[in-house]
Amino acid sequence: MLDVRKLSLLCDLERLGTIAAVAQARTYTPSAVSQQLSALERETGLALLERTGRRVTFTPAGRVLARHAATVLAALEETGAALAALRTGPAGPLRIGAFPTAVRTLLPPALVALGREHPALELMVTEVDPADAPAALRERRLDVALLTDYDVAPGDVDPDLDSVPLLDETVFLAVPAAGDCATLGDARDQPWILASEGTQCHEATLRACAAHGYTPRVRHRADDFATVLALVGAGQGVSLVPGLAAGQATGVRLVALSLRRRTRIAYRKGAAGHPSVAALVATLTGG
Fold first, then answer.
1. Which domain range does residue 69 map to?
2. What is the pLDDT of residue 176?
3. Is there a contact between 238 and 126 (Cβ–Cβ < 8 Å)?
4. Of 30, 69, 167, 239, which has the fewest Cβ atoms less than 10 A away?
Protein backbone atom coordinates (compact mmCIF):
# COMPACT_ATOMS: atom_id res chain seq x y z
CA MET A 1 0.00 0.00 0.00
CA LEU A 2 1.30 3.47 -0.87
CA ASP A 3 2.33 5.74 1.98
CA VAL A 4 0.02 8.75 2.33
CA ARG A 5 2.79 11.03 3.60
CA LYS A 6 4.91 10.29 0.55
CA LEU A 7 1.93 10.90 -1.74
CA SER A 8 1.46 14.26 -0.04
CA LEU A 9 5.08 15.16 -0.80
CA LEU A 10 4.54 14.23 -4.45
CA CYS A 11 1.53 16.57 -4.59
CA ASP A 12 3.62 19.30 -2.99
CA LEU A 13 6.29 18.85 -5.63
CA GLU A 14 3.75 19.14 -8.43
CA ARG A 15 2.43 22.35 -6.88
CA LEU A 16 5.71 23.98 -5.82
CA GLY A 17 7.96 22.80 -8.63
CA THR A 18 11.22 22.04 -6.81
CA ILE A 19 12.42 19.75 -4.06
CA ALA A 20 13.98 22.74 -2.31
CA ALA A 21 10.59 24.49 -2.18
CA VAL A 22 8.92 21.36 -0.81
CA ALA A 23 11.63 21.04 1.83
CA GLN A 24 11.17 24.65 2.89
CA ALA A 25 7.38 24.32 3.07
CA ARG A 26 7.62 21.11 5.11
CA THR A 27 10.63 22.18 7.21
CA TYR A 28 12.49 19.09 5.97
CA THR A 29 15.92 18.92 4.39
CA PRO A 30 16.02 18.56 0.59
CA SER A 31 17.80 15.25 1.13
CA ALA A 32 14.94 13.95 3.28
CA VAL A 33 12.37 14.92 0.62
CA SER A 34 14.41 13.21 -2.10
CA GLN A 35 14.72 10.06 -0.02
CA GLN A 36 10.96 9.92 0.58
CA LEU A 37 10.20 10.38 -3.11
CA SER A 38 12.74 7.72 -4.05
CA ALA A 39 11.07 5.38 -1.56
CA LEU A 40 7.71 6.13 -3.22
CA GLU A 41 9.21 5.14 -6.57
CA ARG A 42 10.30 1.82 -5.08
CA GLU A 43 6.82 1.26 -3.68
CA THR A 44 5.21 1.85 -7.09
CA GLY A 45 7.90 0.07 -9.08
CA LEU A 46 7.87 2.97 -11.54
CA ALA A 47 10.04 5.98 -12.25
CA LEU A 48 8.00 8.98 -11.11
CA LEU A 49 10.61 11.68 -11.60
CA GLU A 50 13.38 12.40 -14.07
CA ARG A 51 16.46 13.93 -12.46
CA THR A 52 18.83 16.18 -14.38
CA GLY A 53 21.42 17.58 -12.00
CA ARG A 54 19.39 19.35 -9.31
CA ARG A 55 16.27 19.62 -11.45
CA VAL A 56 13.43 17.12 -11.45
CA THR A 57 10.53 16.72 -13.84
CA PHE A 58 7.56 14.39 -13.68
CA THR A 59 7.38 11.26 -15.81
CA PRO A 60 3.96 10.31 -17.22
CA ALA A 61 3.60 7.85 -14.32
CA GLY A 62 4.49 10.58 -11.85
CA ARG A 63 1.82 12.90 -13.22
CA VAL A 64 -0.82 10.14 -13.11
CA LEU A 65 0.08 9.31 -9.51
CA ALA A 66 0.11 12.98 -8.44
CA ARG A 67 -3.35 13.49 -9.95
CA HIS A 68 -4.79 10.45 -8.20
CA ALA A 69 -2.93 11.25 -4.98
CA ALA A 70 -4.79 14.56 -4.73
CA THR A 71 -8.06 12.63 -4.98
CA VAL A 72 -6.89 10.17 -2.32
CA LEU A 73 -5.92 12.94 0.09
CA ALA A 74 -9.29 14.65 -0.37
CA ALA A 75 -11.08 11.34 0.19
CA LEU A 76 -9.13 10.76 3.41
CA GLU A 77 -10.07 14.26 4.57
CA GLU A 78 -13.73 13.54 3.81
CA THR A 79 -13.50 10.20 5.63
CA GLY A 80 -12.08 11.89 8.71
CA ALA A 81 -14.89 14.45 8.57
CA ALA A 82 -17.51 11.69 8.31
CA LEU A 83 -16.07 9.85 11.31
CA ALA A 84 -15.92 13.06 13.32
CA ALA A 85 -19.60 13.63 12.51
CA LEU A 86 -20.46 10.42 14.38
CA ARG A 87 -19.40 12.03 17.65
CA THR A 88 -21.95 13.88 19.75
CA GLY A 89 -20.98 17.25 18.28
CA PRO A 90 -18.12 19.61 17.40
CA ALA A 91 -15.19 18.90 19.71
CA GLY A 92 -11.43 19.10 19.93
CA PRO A 93 -8.99 21.61 18.42
CA LEU A 94 -10.11 23.92 15.61
CA ARG A 95 -7.24 26.01 14.27
CA ILE A 96 -8.47 29.18 12.59
CA GLY A 97 -6.32 31.53 10.51
CA ALA A 98 -7.45 35.07 9.74
CA PHE A 99 -6.05 38.45 8.77
CA PRO A 100 -5.78 41.06 11.57
CA THR A 101 -8.90 43.07 10.67
CA ALA A 102 -11.04 39.93 10.68
CA VAL A 103 -9.52 38.84 14.00
CA ARG A 104 -10.68 42.15 15.50
CA THR A 105 -14.11 42.37 13.86
CA LEU A 106 -15.51 39.10 12.50
CA LEU A 107 -14.09 36.46 14.79
CA PRO A 108 -14.78 37.66 18.38
CA PRO A 109 -18.59 37.29 18.23
CA ALA A 110 -18.22 33.99 16.36
CA LEU A 111 -15.81 32.66 18.99
CA VAL A 112 -18.18 33.66 21.79
CA ALA A 113 -21.12 31.97 20.08
CA LEU A 114 -19.17 28.79 19.31
CA GLY A 115 -17.80 28.60 22.84
CA ARG A 116 -21.32 28.89 24.23
CA GLU A 117 -22.95 26.40 21.86
CA HIS A 118 -20.08 23.91 21.59
CA PRO A 119 -18.03 24.01 24.80
CA ALA A 120 -16.04 20.92 23.78
CA LEU A 121 -14.43 22.88 20.93
CA GLU A 122 -10.88 24.12 21.51
CA LEU A 123 -10.75 27.28 19.41
CA MET A 124 -7.30 28.54 18.41
CA VAL A 125 -6.81 31.67 16.29
CA THR A 126 -3.65 32.65 14.42
CA GLU A 127 -3.14 35.90 12.53
CA VAL A 128 -2.02 35.05 9.01
CA ASP A 129 -1.88 36.95 5.74
CA PRO A 130 -4.35 35.56 3.17
CA ALA A 131 -1.43 34.97 0.80
CA ASP A 132 0.10 32.51 3.31
CA ALA A 133 -3.12 30.83 4.44
CA PRO A 134 -3.53 28.26 1.61
CA ALA A 135 -0.14 26.70 2.37
CA ALA A 136 -0.97 26.60 6.08
CA LEU A 137 -4.21 24.75 5.28
CA ARG A 138 -2.52 22.24 2.96
CA GLU A 139 0.22 21.59 5.51
CA ARG A 140 -2.42 21.07 8.23
CA ARG A 141 -1.17 23.93 10.37
CA LEU A 142 -4.68 25.39 10.07
CA ASP A 143 -8.11 23.78 9.73
CA VAL A 144 -10.02 26.85 8.49
CA ALA A 145 -8.79 30.17 7.14
CA LEU A 146 -10.21 33.42 5.81
CA LEU A 147 -8.93 34.15 2.31
CA THR A 148 -9.35 37.38 0.39
CA ASP A 149 -8.97 38.54 -3.17
CA TYR A 150 -9.66 41.75 -5.06
CA ASP A 151 -11.44 42.15 -8.37
CA VAL A 152 -8.26 43.77 -9.74
CA ALA A 153 -6.15 40.90 -8.34
CA PRO A 154 -8.23 37.70 -8.34
CA GLY A 155 -6.93 34.84 -6.22
CA ASP A 156 -5.79 31.59 -7.79
CA VAL A 157 -8.16 28.63 -7.63
CA ASP A 158 -6.47 26.08 -5.36
CA PRO A 159 -7.48 22.50 -6.29
CA ASP A 160 -6.67 21.29 -2.76
CA LEU A 161 -9.11 23.66 -1.05
CA ASP A 162 -12.83 24.35 -0.95
CA SER A 163 -14.43 27.57 0.25
CA VAL A 164 -17.68 29.42 0.79
CA PRO A 165 -18.20 33.17 0.34
CA LEU A 166 -18.38 35.30 3.47
CA LEU A 167 -18.07 38.97 2.59
CA ASP A 168 -18.03 41.29 -0.42
CA GLU A 169 -16.99 44.83 0.44
CA THR A 170 -16.17 48.19 -1.09
CA VAL A 171 -12.56 49.34 -1.18
CA PHE A 172 -11.93 52.97 -0.22
CA LEU A 173 -9.19 55.44 -0.97
CA ALA A 174 -8.17 56.75 2.45
CA VAL A 175 -6.87 60.32 2.39
CA PRO A 176 -6.13 62.86 5.16
CA ALA A 177 -9.26 64.74 6.24
CA ALA A 178 -7.90 67.94 4.73
CA GLY A 179 -6.84 66.25 1.49
CA ASP A 180 -8.49 67.09 -1.82
CA CYS A 181 -8.25 63.73 -3.63
CA ALA A 182 -11.63 62.70 -5.02
CA THR A 183 -10.57 59.79 -7.26
CA LEU A 184 -7.80 57.26 -7.49
CA GLY A 185 -6.40 59.25 -10.38
CA ASP A 186 -6.10 62.32 -8.15
CA ALA A 187 -3.72 60.37 -5.89
CA ARG A 188 -1.10 60.07 -8.61
CA ASP A 189 1.30 62.54 -6.98
CA GLN A 190 0.55 61.65 -3.36
CA PRO A 191 2.87 59.63 -1.10
CA TRP A 192 1.46 56.18 -0.48
CA ILE A 193 1.27 53.77 2.43
CA LEU A 194 1.58 50.28 0.98
CA ALA A 195 1.47 46.78 2.39
CA SER A 196 4.51 44.52 2.25
CA GLU A 197 5.51 43.06 -1.08
CA GLY A 198 4.00 39.65 -1.73
CA THR A 199 0.70 40.45 0.01
CA GLN A 200 -2.60 40.72 -1.83
CA CYS A 201 -3.12 44.28 -0.61
CA HIS A 202 0.20 45.31 -2.15
CA GLU A 203 -0.59 43.67 -5.48
CA ALA A 204 -4.13 45.07 -5.58
CA THR A 205 -2.85 48.61 -4.97
CA LEU A 206 -0.23 48.34 -7.71
CA ARG A 207 -2.80 47.06 -10.21
CA ALA A 208 -5.43 49.65 -9.28
CA CYS A 209 -2.93 52.49 -9.71
CA ALA A 210 -1.57 50.99 -12.94
CA ALA A 211 -5.10 51.09 -14.36
CA HIS A 212 -4.88 54.88 -13.89
CA GLY A 213 -1.47 55.06 -15.55
CA TYR A 214 0.93 55.38 -12.64
CA THR A 215 2.98 53.53 -10.04
CA PRO A 216 2.38 54.68 -6.45
CA ARG A 217 5.25 56.50 -4.72
CA VAL A 218 5.79 54.58 -1.49
CA ARG A 219 6.59 56.47 1.71
CA HIS A 220 5.60 53.96 4.39
CA ARG A 221 4.88 50.22 4.53
CA ALA A 222 2.33 48.75 6.92
CA ASP A 223 0.21 45.59 6.83
CA ASP A 224 -2.28 46.32 9.58
CA PHE A 225 -5.08 48.64 8.47
CA ALA A 226 -5.33 50.28 11.90
CA THR A 227 -1.70 51.37 11.45
CA VAL A 228 -2.37 52.41 7.86
CA LEU A 229 -5.29 54.64 8.89
CA ALA A 230 -3.30 56.17 11.74
CA LEU A 231 -0.58 57.14 9.26
CA VAL A 232 -3.13 58.53 6.81
CA GLY A 233 -4.75 60.52 9.62
CA ALA A 234 -1.32 61.94 10.50
CA GLY A 235 -0.99 63.26 6.96
CA GLN A 236 1.66 60.74 5.96
CA GLY A 237 0.08 59.61 2.73
CA VAL A 238 -2.87 57.85 1.14
CA SER A 239 -3.81 54.19 0.94
CA LEU A 240 -6.46 51.69 -0.12
CA VAL A 241 -8.59 50.35 2.73
CA PRO A 242 -11.43 47.76 2.56
CA GLY A 243 -14.79 48.47 4.16
CA LEU A 244 -14.18 46.06 7.04
CA ALA A 245 -11.38 48.33 8.29
CA ALA A 246 -13.05 51.66 7.49
CA GLY A 247 -14.70 51.96 10.90
CA GLN A 248 -11.29 52.51 12.46
CA ALA A 249 -10.76 55.77 10.58
CA THR A 250 -10.09 58.95 12.59
CA GLY A 251 -9.04 62.18 10.88
CA VAL A 252 -9.39 60.37 7.58
CA ARG A 253 -11.68 60.91 4.61
CA LEU A 254 -12.76 57.76 2.77
CA VAL A 255 -13.49 57.91 -0.95
CA ALA A 256 -15.55 54.95 -2.16
CA LEU A 257 -14.06 53.31 -5.25
CA SER A 258 -15.48 50.82 -7.73
CA LEU A 259 -13.00 48.24 -6.42
CA ARG A 260 -14.25 45.27 -4.40
CA ARG A 261 -12.63 42.85 -1.97
CA ARG A 262 -14.08 39.39 -1.37
CA THR A 263 -13.52 37.21 1.70
CA ARG A 264 -14.04 33.43 1.69
CA ILE A 265 -13.96 30.77 4.40
CA ALA A 266 -11.55 28.09 3.16
CA TYR A 267 -10.72 24.57 4.30
CA ARG A 268 -9.15 21.44 2.85
CA LYS A 269 -11.12 19.67 0.14
CA GLY A 270 -13.31 17.06 1.79
CA ALA A 271 -13.47 18.85 5.16
CA ALA A 272 -16.80 20.65 4.65
CA GLY A 273 -18.68 17.94 6.52
CA HIS A 274 -16.44 18.00 9.56
CA PRO A 275 -18.69 19.11 12.45
CA SER A 276 -16.20 21.67 13.79
CA VAL A 277 -15.61 23.21 10.37
CA ALA A 278 -19.35 23.21 9.60
CA ALA A 279 -20.11 24.85 12.95
CA LEU A 280 -17.67 27.69 12.31
CA VAL A 281 -18.94 28.23 8.76
CA ALA A 282 -22.55 28.32 9.96
CA THR A 283 -21.71 30.77 12.75
CA LEU A 284 -19.78 33.15 10.50
CA THR A 285 -22.31 33.07 7.66
CA GLY A 286 -25.40 33.05 9.85
CA GLY A 287 -26.44 29.77 8.29
1. 4-84
2. 94
3. no
4. 30
**Cα→Cα distances 66→41, 47, 60, 73, Å:** 12, 13, 10, 10
Beta bridge partners of 98: 127
Report d(CA 83, CA 75) in Å as an integer.
12
What's the pLDDT tens digit per position in 119-147?
Answer: 999 999 999 989 889 989 988 899 999 99
pLDDT above 80 for 10: yes
Q: Are residues 258 and 140 in the same domain?
A: no
**Whether 74 and 145 share a structural domain:** no
Question: Considering only 10-19, 97-106, 229-238, which range has the smallest mean pLDDT?
Answer: 10-19
Domain boundary among 64, 84, 104: 84
- 183 & 228 share domain: yes
Residue 282 has pLDDT above 70, yes or no: yes
For residue 287, pLDDT beyond 80: no
